[in-house]
Amino acid sequence: MHFRFLEEPDFAELQALERRIFPGRPEAFYRTAPAALRYYARSGHSFAAVDGERLLGFVLAQAVWQGDRATVLVTRIAAESAEVYAGLLRALIKSAYDANAYEVALLAEPGDRPELDRALADAQLADSGRRLHTRVLGGRGARGETGGVLE
To answer: Does domain 2-142 have CATH number 3.40.630.30?
Structure first.
């Protein structure tokens, strides 16, 4: 298994993998639209886990500048095993460090994916215990949607 930047020929498989790992979610939940993947492919912090020709997982992340420092913010991490999660997190942390972005953040529901929980603990990503407050604007907000923000 190796980890590499996203490539356009991966896009359909990335979409299928995300929907397989997170079935039945509202459309706004999914992050693998081609326009989004083109952006993340250029971020320097998004990776695909590949074994031969088979895509096993991916992480979508970007640097968010805060004036005096950068945080690499993960929008989506999806994988088929704890081993793949661990490898994706190693690639992500190395890319953040190499870019002088000394903070990595992602939103994860404890217990939702135990294999991710283990990989996060092994990679020393701490649970801050904070809650995410969201408001969805526009037509989606008018329909009462609250999800899809950093999910």
So the answer is: yes
Q: Is 35 helix (H, G, I), strand (E, B) or coil?
A: helix
Q: Report the DSSP beta bridge partners of residue 78.
A: 58
The residue whose two tokens read 């993998």 is 17
DSSP class of 45: S
| Global confidence as pTM | 0.89
Let me know: does 47 contact 98? Beta carbons within 8 Å: no
User: Strand order in 70-79's β-sheet?
Assistant: 2-5, 47-51, 54-65, 70-79, 103-106
Domain ranges of the chain: 2-142
pLDDT digits (tens, 9 = 90+) for 65-111: 988 889 999 999 999 899 999 999 999 999 999 999 999 999 887 77
The DSSP bridge pattern shows strands 47-51 and 2-5 to be antiparallel
* Residue 2, Ramachandran bin (φ over 0: left; ψ between -120 and 50: alpha; else beta): beta
And the tokens for 97? 């460090």
57: its two tokens: 């997982």
